[in-house]
Amino acid sequence: MLDKFFAPKAVTVVGASREEGKVGHSLIKNLTGHGFKGPVYPVNPKAADIMGLKCFPDIASLPDGVDLAVIAIPAKLVPSAIEECGRKGIGAAIVISAGFKEVGEKGKELEQQLFNASMASGVRILGPNCLGLISTQCNLDASFAAHYPEKGDIAVLSQSGALCTAILDWAVRNHIGFSKLISIGNKVDIDEEGLIEALSDDPDTRVIVGYLEDITNGPHFMRTAERVTKKKPIILIKAGTTDAGSKAASSHTGSIAGARMAYQCAFRRSGVLQAPSLEALFDYAQIFSYQPLLKDRKIAVLTNAGGPGIMAADAVENIGLQFAEISEAAKDKLRKFLPAAANVANPIDILGDAPAEVYGKALNIILDEEGVDGIVVLLTPQAMIDVEEAARQIVAACRGRTKPVAASFIGAERVSNGIEILQKNRIPHYPTPERAVEALGMLGEYAKWLERPRRIIRRFAVNTTKVDRVIRFSHKRRQMNIGEQESKEILAAYGFTVPGDRLARNSDEAVSAASAIGYPVVMKVVSPDIIHKSDAGGVRVNLTGPSQVRDAYELMMMRIKEKEPNARVHGVLMQEMVTEGREIIVGMTRDPQFGPMLMFGLGGIYVEVLRDVSFQLAPITSEEALEMLFGTKTYKLLQGVRGEKSVDMQLVAECIQRISQLAMDFPMIEEMDINPLKISAEGGRAVAVDARIRIGAINGQL
Ligand code: ADP
Ligand code: MG
Fold first, then answer.
1. Per-residue pLDDT averaged across 508-524, rounded?
2. Residue ranges per domain, the chain?
3. CATH number of 500-576: 3.40.50.720, 3.90.580.10, 3.40.50.300, 3.30.1490.20?
4. The CATH homologous superfamily of the domain defined by 292-451
């Protein structure tokens, strides 16, 4: 699809330069310096030849058959150069030139012209404002970078050109090979989505990694990524996410969620692995490039020192992998050549004075073990060990195996040659045991993604007509914050249980409402101007008799007048007190890029303080809803501590799915909270004790 970029037959540099140090010079040097087979034609009206290559005065006078132009001329000349490329039949252009939207209004206009030129001429554009592209399969260096990587199967995308140069520098030092390195620049035409699509079909690419600052079109990207990640892993680092959008929120969910969370959800949903740092990005990239996937979760550790073995064991536990059990037969085999003091159980400790060959022998035995899925090999440079020989032994034992191995040789000076041997032979090496374990964990994550069952979204029988009516009624009155009562009507129409309640406008009405409902009761202020009722002194719980109700009513009215003098107060809601069940929050906020994000967490008035919440994008399956629970500490609380009964987790998952359906059915709902939702043990009920919903435009009308 982007073959003209990745494997062009002939390349021209528009803006080639004789002057050392100029971008137009580096481009010629790089294009001719790494064995690219096709011709390279410099274009420069003022030079006869550059570095021994015949120069052409303009694009029109180039020979036929050029399919890629690398453009490094002043920004204002670029749009017409693209048109010329079109006329000449050059279908692809890398625009290195800067001075477009990154420099403000004028540049933005110029970038629009560039876009128009691309559309009109059909010339595909990478950039502008980029470092260029490297494609090692045909020895093509169409960049002005100072380094050139080894051949490999990792494709790198970067929205930052400067970062590309840093990545290259580091990759060269660590013998990490790339299939492609692509600087995507301002993305006037080709963006991350087009590139992952193209790389998905690239036989030379096994892993796609990228540094992104933004994503052009969230939903499109997700759809493509979901397809691509079924074929090969995508690992991304997403930088520069501000959470500015969430400040205007009126719900708990809206104020906790933000763009960062939305990206996290979108990546998870589409199988994209997210790296927390640049370091992690390449930690993961190496193991995916070099090693087979982790089939199951059982990890063995081979070490010549106790301490690092324990560190690795802790890391295995922490990230949810399992510690493998070594069979008796294997232990016997190990005992044959290990000293009596060695530990033949996992972590297998061959002791500090073990000679290098022991690594090979032991590793072979562990690799043969059925109960072992992945192995961490640790080495500390003790006593007389020949570190390089140990590395060679490890390499030999791993050859042709189908289980992943990650190594960590701890130290610096004495281990460096050994590390180099590992890296050159595709054994991923990490400076610490923890990082080796984490990398293995990522292999496991990806394997899980590949085996994920088909997503089935359950649909509940609900009353959409009723919800539609409540929403339109509020919208007509410009009541964008739908209060507790009407929000609960909506929830009831979607199958939620709500406590019985009655509106009371004075203390007499409050008392008679309370006796109709039955004690104990709850009293809550009803005001379109008060969103958080407790904050305004507008909630009293556990009122047990008429005199208490009367007093509470008078006191509440007084307090609210003090705290919210301008609030319109319609009265109080007398409500059945729900005594059983644990309080959780289930909510939704609509992300502008990725749509409805569902939230689950510990409910009540401390949500924003504790922030023990998890998010997923709607629509959601029941498995995903349960995963949301597992992701929180609240889950442990809900399971019950010190003899408490566990709440009904399936019921919680079902509530999340119902909210998911509501959010999908009514796109005008911007945010909602059920806080708290009271959940009982199995056989009990889920009661929406409080709720609020905020709506936005309906069919574009606010
Ligand atoms: P707000 O969130 O606007 O301050 P809520 O209606 O959520 O008001 O009430 C605050 C707290 O009071 C809830 O978190 C819950 O603990 C308790 N509460 C409210 N209504 C009930 C009820 N019907 N039964 C039991 N507890 C309730
Ligand atoms: Mg509440």
1. 97
2. 3-205, 292-451, 500-576, 582-695
3. 3.30.1490.20
4. Succinyl-CoA synthetase domains (3.40.50.261)
The pLDDT of residue 642 is: 84
* CATH 3.40.50.720 fits domain 3-205: yes
Closest by alpha carbon to 570, among 457, 658, 484, 663? 484
Name residues contacting ligand 1 (CB within 6 A): 499, 522, 524, 532-534, 539, 541, 575-578, 583, 604-605, 675-676, 689-690
Residue 442's pLDDT band (cuts 50, 70, 90): very high
Specify the residue with its C-alpha closest to ligand 1, atom 22: 577
More confident residue, 463 or 610: 463
Domain 582-695 = CATH 3.30.470.20:
yes
d(CA 479, ligand 1 centre) in Å: 22
Residue 286 or 214, more confident: 286
Ligand with an atom nearest the CA of residue 524: 1
Q: For 89, list phi and psi in degrees, rounded to 5.
A: 85, 20
Range in 104-118, 232-246, 351-365, 547-561 with the lowest mean pLDDT: 232-246
Closest ligand 1 atom number to CA of residue 583: 16
d(CA 605, CA 597): 21
Q: Cβ(50)–Cβ(27) under 8 Å?
A: no
- Among the listed residues 515, 510, 514, the one whose alpha carbon sits nearest the alpha carbon of residue 525: 510
At 165-212, the pLDDT tens digits run 989 998 998 899 999 999 999 999 999 999 999 999 999 999 999 999
User: Does this chain's domain 3-205 share its CATH topology with 292-451?
Assistant: yes
The pLDDT of residue 243 is: 57
Q: pTM (2 decimals)?
A: 0.91
Residue nearest to atom 5 of ligand 1 (CA): 690
Q: What is the pLDDT of residue 248?
A: 57
Atom of ligand 1 lying closest to residue 499 CA: 23
Secondary structure E strands in 544-638: 571-576, 582-591, 595-602, 613-617
Ligand 1, pocket-test mutation among 496, 522, 531, most atoms within 8 A of CB: 522
User: How far apart (Å, rounded) are the C-alpha atoms in residues 430 and 408?
Assistant: 5
